[in-house]
């Protein structure tokens, strides 16, 4: 039954069936083949898959990100990034990375960050001779940081499934996210020097102060969200509500770039993006249930125990499996499918679920820039109007440094656990 479940999933994916319907279809095939499980188990599990208060934060953060982009927050964060790092060779590549760092503190979605910053920066990069492939590659790679620096939609999903504090997961992603961004800037600088990319004059102090003042309200948002969660004033879901209200107030009454007549369109955009994620979350629930019924977690645990009793070997093997899955599955689906299977392995090998949750989020985000299914890859190449081949050709240095950092975070847990242990004992 387990083999049929997995084989039918990949068979449907290879046929081009959308991820959510592939998960649902493979569950149905396995249940029909088993013969004794009632079919009403599928709609029951579909409903249970979405019946979660923490998961309510996902559509709310998506809505907040949509409102912020329309409310002028994105363009002010890009302007701030330009005055801070525009003087470094390969200026727009660094602006892209830093803009995504700032955006990651407000939306929690890599796709939303890439769409917002890419539409503004990629045309400028192409115009200045960076090349379509490189422009798409640096956008995709830098957007992987979006769900690592808090808030984070993947961490909300994992935390609700694994029973791990979402506030601690948010804090755990801060240091890795900043290290990832810094490393991407180093790689960008090396490529810029080799190819002779332009650099701009250093901004004057007056320009920096003005950019900070204009972006202040945008910069306050992650402080309010993360600060409120780890001090216990509100939960992750309540922080998402605050993010929506905050973005509405700032967009309508402070920056005044958001118009009331635009609200229905922005709501529809958020609903469209949320529903696509919701279908995957709902469809993953019966898939995970059938896998548990077929004793998938126990069989995977037995396989790991037969390979090695080393915690490091088990952790690195998990990372390798997740990287491979990231080439073929959406990140949300990977988290939902693998979390119930992996939890017994974490307990058996004494791996901290908090530590693993952060590196799991990094892992699935790296998968978003790998063909053939990488969502960030497709967002970037659609904006840059380039090909998967050109993207892959340019993204590999960024991919390699991200995988190296993933291994470092896996081997040195304190890089993840330092802030949660310091601020949320």
Would you kindly provide a written description of the structure presented here, covering whatever features stand out?
- It comes from Metabacillus halosaccharovorans.
- It is a multi-pass membrane protein.
- Pfam families: DctM.
- Its main location: membrane.
- The protein has 425 residues and is mainly α.
- The chain has one domain.
- It has 21 helices and no strands.
- The radius of gyration is 21 Å and the shape is globular.
Task: Give a quick set of tags describing it.
425 residues; 21 helices; 0% strand; mainly alpha; cell inner membrane
Entry summary:
With 425 residues, this protein is an all-alpha fold. Helix content is 78%, strand content 0%.
Write the layout of secondary structure elements.
Layout: H1 2-14, H2 19-34, H3 41-50, H4 57-70, H5 73-85, H6 91-104, H7 110-127, H8 132-143, H9 153-162, H10 166-172, H11 174-195, H12 205-230, H13 236-254, H14 263-293, H15 296-307, H16 311-326, H17 331-348, H18 353-367, H19 375-384, H20 388-411, H21 414-423
Helix pairs in contact: 1-2, 2-14, 3-14, 4-13, 4-14, 5-6, 5-12, 6-7, 6-8, 6-11, 7-8, 7-19, 8-19, 8-20, 9-17, 9-18, 10-18, 10-21, 11-20, 12-13, 14-17, 15-17, 16-18, 16-20, 17-18, 18-20
């Amino acid at each position: 039954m387990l083999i049929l479940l997995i084989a039918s999933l990949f068979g449907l994916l290879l046929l081009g069936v959308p991820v959510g319907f592939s998960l649902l279809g493979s569950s149905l095939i396995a249940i029909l083949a088993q013969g004794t499980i009632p079919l009403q188990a599928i709609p029951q599990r579909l409903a249970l898959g979405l019946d979660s208060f923490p998961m309510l934060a996902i559509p709310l953060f998506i809505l907040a990100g949509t409102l912020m982009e329309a409310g002028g927050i994105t363009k002010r964060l890009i302007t701030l990034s330009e005055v801070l790092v525009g003087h470094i060779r390969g200026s727009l590549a660094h602006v892209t990375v830093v803009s995504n760092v700032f955006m990651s503190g407000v939306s929690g979605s890599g796709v939303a960050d890439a769409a917002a910053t890419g539409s503004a920066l990629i045309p400028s990069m192409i115009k200045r001779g960076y090349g379509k492939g490189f422009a798409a590659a640096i956008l995709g790679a830098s957007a992987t940081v979006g769900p690592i620096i808090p808030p984070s939609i993947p961490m909300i999903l994992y935390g609700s499934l694994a029973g791990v504090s979402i506030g601690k997961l948010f804090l755990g992603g801060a240091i890795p996210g900043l290290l990832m961004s810094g490393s991407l800037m180093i790689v960008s600088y090396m490529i810029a020097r080799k190819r002779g990319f332009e650099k701009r004059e250093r901004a004057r102090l007056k320009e920096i102060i003005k950019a900070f003042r204009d972006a202040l309200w945008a910069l306050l948002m992650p402080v309010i969200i993360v600060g409120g969660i780890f001090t216990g004033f509100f939960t992750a879901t309540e922080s998402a509500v605050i993010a929506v209200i905050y973005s509405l107030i700032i967009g309508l009454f402070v920056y005044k770039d958001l118009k009331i007549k635009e609200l229905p369109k922005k709501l529809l955009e958020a609903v469209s993006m949320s529903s696509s994620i919701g279908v995957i979350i709902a469809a993953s629930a019966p898939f995970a249930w059938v896998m548990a019924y077929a004793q998938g977690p126990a069989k995977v645990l037995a396989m790991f125990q037969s390979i090695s009793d080393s915690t490091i070997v088990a952790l690195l093997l998990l990372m390798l499996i997740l990287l491979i899955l990231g080439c073929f599955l959406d990140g949300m689906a990977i988290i939902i499918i693998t979390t119930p299977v992996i939890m017994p392995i974490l307990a058996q090998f004494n791996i901290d679920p908090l530590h693993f949750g952060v590196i799991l989020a990094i892992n699935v985000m790296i998968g978003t820039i790998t063909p053939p299914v990488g969502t960030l890859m497709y967002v970037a190449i659609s904006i840059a109007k380039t090909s998967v081949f050109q993207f892959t050709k340019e993204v590999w240095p960024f991919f390699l440094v991200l995988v190296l950092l993933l291994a470092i975070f896996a081997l040195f847990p304190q890089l993840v656990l330092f802030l949660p242990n310091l601020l949320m004992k």
